[in-house]
What we know:
Helix content is 38%, strand content 19%. It is an alpha/beta fold.
Amino acid sequence: MVSHESVALLTDLYEFTMAQAYFNDHKTERATFSLFVRSYPLNRGFFISAGLHDVLKFLENFALDEPALDYLSMQNLFMHDFLKFLEKLRFTGDVWALPEGQLFFKDEPILEVTAPIIEAQLVETFIINQINLQSLIATKAARCVHAAGKRAVVDFALRRTHGIDAGMKVARSSYLAGFAGTSNVLAGKRYEIPTVRTMAHSFVSSFGDEIDAFRSYAASFPDTATLLIYTYDTIAGARKAAEVAKEMAARGQRLKGGRIDSSDLAWLAIKVRKILDEAGLPDIKIIGSGGLDEYDLTELSGAQIPFDSYGVGTKMGTSSDAPWSYMAYKLVEYGDKPVLKTSPGKISWPGAKQLFRQRNDQGQLEQDIIGLRDERIASAETLLGKVMEAAR
């Protein structure tokens, strides 16, 4: 993960070269940049906002330390006076943004930065980097939550996310979007997210007999154990789990659940539920996992397959079917003058904005209206709030 000391360098080089050109041209007026997504990825019709927490923390702590300035000096691109200017540079602007977890649509402003133009320009790349990834993950996670219906969904993505930072952001973004917890212990600590666990195939196969593995795990966790019953034969594993559950009940303990990890999940869940019910164990939960996403969950929910919850990992943690978006951060106002881009297919709307949401009598979303910051619509909720003022 990037350290706080060097994070101000987490940008594209042209942000610094433009900043020097602004500096030399004495361009110091306040500018407003607007962040939005130009179009939907395939099979998407909405987004969920995430990443604002990290953006605000970055802006609050923005500074170029001595090693960062030394590195810029070594590029032989920057003037001494400009580097001295950067030495004292801090973010002093205002930020308006959607709350995290909020629904939004293409072309709508997610976040707007108003600051002296050098400050607003230098933070562009970091803002896109953070909100693009986290909003994609939150959107994928929200789709999984919706598809699962009333069944809980938890994050199993860490081992296949794209690095440490992504793994942390996936846990937080999915929880923000409605996931019930994560397997990621560090994310649980840092973000106060409930942590969940079952067991791995390696634990089961380290024992001579599957039932011995179950008994060992249950002995360590007599009231919270969830057993992985798909290492050899799921049907046989379910029967052994039922036997262990009865042994635990005789001791005043309780087996929490059993996890099915792959193969024909629907057929196996029906068979396992029947085995547990016939054994007089209707309270034991069945957890499904193994390459699931919202499309699988829709099928399982629609068929009323008796899963009680799901572990969702790789496809959610990488937003596998939509791993990127056309997110843009465009200058919309400089000084007191509105600014717009007019290139074909990439027109941006000028001026500092507000996003208005109208609902019908049942409280359902009816439409969003993009207006100017100082406009008012009596029947609408304003969605962009000032979340930072003069970097406070």
